[in-house]
Amino acid sequence: MALTTTPFIQRMFVQALKDILTAEKVNVCGTDVIVLIKGSWNSELLRQVARNIVLQEDAILHSEESLREMAVTTTHLHCQQEAVKNVQRSSDLQDQLKHLLK
């Protein structure tokens, strides 16, 4: 079982630092180390959030492009439907004309 996952390593690192900080000699700079760790953690979260926002923005842009293409396709289908109706009307008129000429 690999123990190299980022959350596990971070928890182990934080726990090791807490254990070290319990010693009186290190307590002076302990809060600075904890702030530094929290800051790096926040930076990583911010990077993840920014990456997710970019991915969502790309997905939205792709969806908008797909909607535009679907609108164009719908317009083409409506035009084709009208053309089929016109041919059908023309065929009906030709049948009526043939019937009248008999």
Automatic annotation (TrEMBL):
Entry keyword annotation includes Membrane: yes
Cellular component, GO annotation: BORC complex; lysosomal membrane
Segments crossing the lipid bilayer: none
Signal peptide: none
InterPro entries in UniProt: BORCS7
UniProt-annotated location(s): Lysosome membrane
Keywords linked to the UniProt accession: Lysosome, Membrane
One Pfam family this sequence matches: BORCS7
Record PANTHER family: BLOC-1-RELATED COMPLEX SUBUNIT 7, BLOC-1-RELATED COMPLEX SUBUNIT 7 BORSC7
Recorded family membership: Belongs to the BORCS7 family.
Protein known as: BLOC-1-related complex subunit 7
Native source species: Loxodonta africana
